[in-house]
Specification:
single chain, 186 residues, alpha+beta, 3-stranded antiparallel β-sheet, two-stranded antiparallel ribbon, 3 helices
C-alpha cells in the first residue's frame, strides 16, 4: 500500500514539475511574425473633407445560455475596443463643367455631388476574451478562431451602429462645413 501511495505521489510530483518547467519554458519561446502584402491600391483623389468623426467604442458579445447561473455555466464572451474613423466628403473629381455657373460677374454657383461617408476601422484591441465554463473549471463553449471571428464581427457591427444612428446629423454638419470651405476658397 505504501508503494502505491509513493508511486502516485511520484507521478503527481513529476506532472507538477513538468507543468511548471513547460510553463516557464513556454513564456521564453521565440515568437515569429510574418506579414505579406496582398493588395495595394494607389490613386489620385480630389476630395473635400467636410467632417472627420473619430470614435472609440467598447463592444461586448456573448455566446451561451444567459438563463443559466454564472456559477454553474458562464457564457463565452469577447469584449473588443474599436477605433473608428468616418469621413464625410465631396468628390470634387466628379464635378463637370455644367456644375459651375456664373450667376454674376465674379460670383459662381457650384452644384456639388452628394456627400459620401466612408467608415474605416483604424484599430482593434481585444479587451476581454473568455470561454464558457462549467463550474468555472471546464471549458464547454470554446473560443476558437471561428467563434472568436463571429463574436468579433458581431461586436464590430454593434460598434458601427453608433455612426448609423447619428448619420443624418453628421451629414448636415459635413454639408455646412463644405459650404464654409468653398466660400473661403472662392
Amino acid at each position: 500500500m505504501a508503494e502505491l501511495i509513493l508511486t502516485v505521489l511520484g507521478i503527481t510530483g513529476g506532472v507538477v514539475v513538468t507543468f511548471l518547467l513547460m510553463r516557464r519554458a513556454g513564456s521564453a519561446a521565440p515568437e515569429t511574425f510574418t506579414s505579406v502584402a496582398i493588395a495595394e491600391r494607389i490613386r489620385s483623389v480630389g476630395r473635400l473633407v467636410g467632417l472627420d468623426v473619430n470614435a472609440k467604442e467598447i463592444a461586448t458579445t456573448t455566446k451561451g445560455w444567459s438563463w443559466m447561473p454564472p456559477l454553474l455555466l458562464s457564457q463565452a464572451r469577447v469584449a473588443m475596443i474599436f477605433h473608428f474613423e468616418k469621413q464625410y466628403s465631396v468628390d470634387l473629381a466628379r464635378l463637370r463643367q455644367d456644375d459651375v455657373r456664373e450667376v454674376a460677374p465674379g460670383h459662381f454657383r457650384i452644384t456639388l455631388p452628394p456627400i459620401e461617408g466612408s467608415l474605416r476601422l483604424t484599430d482593434l484591441e481585444p479587451y476581454d476574451i473568455q470561454a464558457g465554463r462549467v463550474l468555472g473549471l471546464l471549458d464547454i463553449i470554446q473560443v476558437n478562431a471561428a467563434t472568436q471571428k463571429d463574436l468579433m464581427r458581431r461586436a464590430q457591427d454593434q460598434a458601427a451602429s453608433l455612426f448609423t444612428s447619428n448619420d443624418a446629423r453628421y451629414q448636415s454638419e459635413a454639408r455646412a462645413s463644405v459650404q464654409r470651405h468653398l466660400k473661403a476658397l472662392l
